[in-house]
Specification:
29 strands, 3 domains, alpha/beta, nucleotide-binding, binds adenosine-5'-triphosphate, binds magnesium ion, Gln_tRNA_ligase_bac, seven-stranded mixed sheet, Ribosomal Protein L25, Chain P, about 550 residues, Glutamyl-tRNA Synthetase, domain 3
Length: about 550
Amino acid sequence: MSESEARPTNFIRQIIDKDLAGGVHTTVHTRFPPEPNGYLHIGHAKSICLNFGIAKDYQGQCNLRFDDTNPEKEDIEFVESIKSDVNWLGFDWSGEVCYSSGYFDRLHGYAVELIEKGLAYVEELSPDEIREYRGTLTAPGKHSPYRDRTVEENLALFDKMKNGEFAEGKACLRAKIDMASPFMVMRDPVLYRVRFAHHHQTGDKWCIYPMYDFTHCISDAIEGITHSLCTLEFQDNRRLYDWVLDNITIECQPRQYEFSRLNLEYTVMSKRKLSQLVSENLVNGWDDPRMPTISGLRRRGYTPAAIREFCKRIGVTKQENTIEMSSLESCIRDDLNENAPRAMAVLDPIKLVIENFDGDIEHLSAPNHPNKPEMGERSIPFSREIWIEAEDFREEANKKYKRLVLGKEVRLRNAYFVKAERCDKDADGKVTTVYCTYDPETLGKDPADGRKAKGVIHWVSADAGVPAEIRLYDRLFTLPNPGAADDFAATINPESLTVVQGYVEPSLKAAVAEQGYQFERMGYFCVDRKDSTDDALVFNRTVGLRDTWAKIDG
Ligand code: ATP
Ligand code: MG
């Protein structure tokens, strides 16, 4: 296995070690809290590996909690996909799946408690006015005329909100904190708003929904979370997180710690943007193999082990940075180099006729892995007509070209020496057929007279090979940071997908979904689990054999 065994160390694990050593906690309880408004992406994998990885290594617990307070943007399809992606990555949550919406009654109770303590009030300024009153980073905000209502009045109005007597935007509940705070989140943040929206878990029970900052800390406390790990953009919100928990009657005091988000070059990582790519049909769904989603990477042929290894290699810090795509690719390449069975496929076929081969198909045998005899051998049919890669033949070439040239010999991988004699061309001068002779004495051994082959090329029997559609992928965007472009969708790489019709060796008819294969000399491929049928094979190229990114950039 290419996944390294060593336990990671990072500043969060150091905090946990200290908390356990100092008796602050006796066990560790984390959570992964996605909002079900899209499919998970590789950035979420970082958070999943961190949260579930800590629970595993410290024999603690990690909850899966849907942070579902925005019913209009959420959907049960996303709930299901997230559960399945977390499992596929190799993690399982403690107990039942949790939902913030499962705490709506208690959250409502805590809001009432804040009102009763004079720490929350019903606001009737419009959303625009609220923004205007909030002030700026350099100017303090000013008090709303509704800020000093009595507790009784606030309780009655909050009840009216709950009963649907205010239209959306006509009232909201705000915390009464400090309109002059240097932290904008502390300037009387909104805790509840009116939304007449059907919720995927609670149906039509509620028409008021709690805001993230109010919901998240209380959900953490209800679940007994010890270390609440989130990304750096929530650093300021930590003040509000602590304020809410300090001002309500609740046992547990979880602590929030922030780490930097994963950013990857040449892709976008925000669900809003990914969702736009899907809804505008700029890609073929959330699991398009070009997408940085877990389901896209999975369909592309990434393994859970490779993604976990990637998360281990990038580590967890507070440093903002952007990771090169080649780092992700080297993880899957390392995994597949070790674990993928070898096979032969021709992606841009021309015919090679072996004129001195008579008889039917000959069954040759080839190892499934050059360094792993335990992976066994397979039978490969060899015949008078075979397919070779168009780029593997030239009528003439210099010494650097280690492939088939007229009058010269190459070895056919796992088979014989062949010598090119002549070729046919079409009207455009493109070679269509190469005629050659083979040396039957060269199977598995060099010729006795010391002749050397110029190189080794791969091939597929034209009689027994199987036609296949093969999808080749390139970076999805032309810019390293497409998210920063005015119109990121306009920076999509028009060559991000190339479809070719090739031939694969017949053993690949039995190719298993999610099993990576090395097509010799061409890269790592897997069967497309959605579009492949028994009669029409479709393969995705997961990654090339070598890193070509540096070359493209340089
Ligand atoms: P997005 O911007 O993609 O919508 P989000 O933070 O709104 O991301 P959530 O569903 O709220 O998405 O995220 C669930 C968890 O995953 C959060 O704890 C969040 O901090 C973490 N997370 C999201 N994106 C990344 C990322 N790029 N790197 C690391 N962690 C991330
Ligand atoms: Mg979010």
